[in-house]
Design brief:
- The protein has 233 residues and is an alpha/beta fold.
- It contains nine helices and six strands; from the N terminus they run E-H-E-H-E-E-H-H-H-H-E-H-E-H-H.
- A six-stranded mixed beta sheet has the order 2-1-3-6-4-5, with helices on both faces.
């Protein structure tokens, strides 16, 4: 099992701004970190092909993000997002596809999944999925079970890097039903790099140097994951 192709997905884009703080938009911060991460992977691992779901401020449907990963036979799918919540909420969390164990996890999935309401044929594309229905989230969270071990393996490395190497506050690895991970046929994780609704984290994440810093944590997790997976064979 070699890790040859990684797809990096900058959440949101175009008409879909994602969440926002006082001045920072999720779509811009996620893109900046995604591009920096891709560059670090390309420079550090010339044997790995990096594919982006978007490289600029464009709107990409959730189903197409997974489609890009599948079409490129990606070995890992990394989706980068920023979180929203009460202004006191802070910290990073990395999600894998799975059954949400708390209403908080469900709330994050609902917020990220509600993007489909801006898409043209969402009822056909997502099998009648209703982003406001808890039942919908439970049903389709069962799809990714084949890749859950490696998805968790990668997600745990990301949060460990954030916590121990970058000194960020980690809220841990969680599971919830994300449409963007649902159709991806490979290990995948959705990384919430911090809360734009928290003034201190917004200031941190809106800074170019700190964006490189966050990308470097994800890059080291990727490198560890790749080495570990390839050594197992």
């Amino acid at each position: 099992m070699k890790v040859r192709t990684v797809v990096i997905d900058a959440g949101h884009g175009g008409k879909d701004i994602g969440c926002n703080g006082k001045s920072a938009y999720e779509k811009h911060v996620a893109l900046a970190v995604a591009l920096k991460l891709g560059k670090q992977i390309e420079e550090g691992n010339p044997d790995v092909k990096v594919v982006y779901t978007r490289k600029d401020d464009t709107f990409v449907e959730l189903i197409d993000r997974a489609g890009i990963a599948n079409k490129n036979h990606a070995d890992l799918f990394i989706s980068i997002h920023c979180n929203a919540g009460p202004s006191a909420a802070f910290g990073t969390e990395t999600y894998t596809m799975g059954l949400h164990t708390s209403t908080g996890n469900l709330a994050v999935a609902k917020r990220e999944n509600s993007v489909i309401l801006q898409e043209e044929n969402y009822k056909e594309n997502y099998g009648g999925f209703n982003p406001n229905s808890p039942q919908s989230h439970i049903l389709f969270s069962l799809y990714q079970s084949a890749y859950i071990d490696n998805s968790l393996r990668f997600a745990q490395k990301v949060e460990r890097q954030f916590k121990t190497k970058l000194g960020r506050s980690s809220r841990g690895v969680k599971q919830a039903g994300f449409l963007v991970l649902w159709k991806s046929a490979m290990p995948s994780a959705l990384i919430e790099i911090g809360f734009l609704t928290n003034p201190a984290e917004e200031k941190f994440l809106n800074d170019n140097t700190n964006q490189s810093y966050m990308a470097s944590g994800i890059y080291r997790a990727f490198k560890e994951y790749k080495q570990e997976l390839e050594a197992m064979n």
